[in-house]
Amino acid sequence: MVLSRKSQTPSLTPAIISDTVPSPETFNDGLPLPKIIAFDLDYTLWPFWVDTHVTPPLKAKDNNIRSVDRWGESFTFYPDVPSILLSAKSTTPPLTLATASRTSAPDIAISLLKQLHLPTTSEAGASSKAASKRAYDIFDYMQIFPGDKKTHFARIQKQSGVSYDEMLFFDDERRNKNVETLGVVFWEVPSGVTRAEVDRGVREWRRRKGKEGKES
Fold first, then answer.
1. Least packed by Cβ within 10 Å: which of 107, 115, 123, 128?
2. Cis link prior to 57 (omega < 30° from 0)?
3. Which one of 19, 29, 42, 165 is the catalytic residue?
4. Where in 58-148 does DSSP place strands (E)?
5. 3-state SS, residue 82
6. Are 103 and 42 in contact (CB under 8 A)?
7. Taking residues 26-31, what's their average pLDDT?
8. Residue among 19, 29, 40, 62 flagged as catalytic
9. Which helix (H) or strand (E) holds 101?
10. What percent of the chain has pLDDT over 90?
């Protein structure tokens, strides 16, 4: 069943990193963090279904902040996403990131991740093309294929060697909560990833792990 909020291609505004979008508080509060933070793609990192709304070929626009398809429709991340992903790689040590998507159009998803860049901000406040990173390159593990998300996480676990209970997963679909049978902590983001949702998810992971205080 298709939900009404996802039934049509959304009108998108390019996401731009600025000082008004700070990193999640939990990334810098000195408390423990998951060893792997994983994200779904559709309606989690971006507000569309790649296998329904996007028609190749794709072409990057505006210094790779957005991508345009055959019909001129524009696609990009939710506004907070670029800042969150870059902030994750700015922690000490950098956080390990993964994608776990069940889209039936993995080639389109990968093309978008390669075309969409995460723009940094210069001291003057202007987006720096030279310093931008491909979203594709920010992820350490990528599992993008149709099927049960438990299979995605089994592969991530095998590749990384990280135990399931050290993983936190953000997804917009409640059915994917079944990954918790493996030990992964699931956090539902029905309206997509935001800085606040990342903080809520990390705090829930800490609560379940009993790591709400600083380690001695």
1. 123
2. yes
3. 42
4. 59-61, 66-68, 74-75, 96-101, 117-121, 127-134, 141-144
5. helix
6. yes
7. 96
8. 40
9. strand 96-101
10. 81
Positive or negative, the Cα torsion across 204, 206, 208, 212?
Answer: negative
Pairing mode, if any, of strands 74-75 and 96-101?
unpaired
pLDDT single digits (tens) 150-189: 999 999 999 999 999 999 999 999 999 999 999 999 999 9
Mean pLDDT of all residues in 37-43 = 98
Name the DSSP class of 112: H
Task: Return the number of other C-beta atoms located less than 10 Å from residue 137's C-beta.
Answer: 12
Q: Are 31 and 206 in contact (CB under 8 A)?
A: yes
- Side chain identity, residue 92: T
pLDDT at 21: 66
- For residue 210, the model assigns a pLDDT of 93
Would the pLDDT of 205 be above 80?
Answer: yes
Q: Is the pLDDT of residue 16 over 90?
A: no
Helix (H) or strand (E) holding 127: strand 127-134
pLDDT at 185: 98
Please state the pTM of the whole predicted model: 0.88
Active site (annotated) includes residue 172? no
* pLDDT, average across residues 49-54: 96
Of 203, 155, 195, 204, which Cα lies nearest the Cα of 177?
A: 204
Distance CA 75, CA 48 (A): 8
Distance between start and end Cα atoms, the chain = 49
In this structure, what token pair is assigned to residue 153? Answer: 């996480």
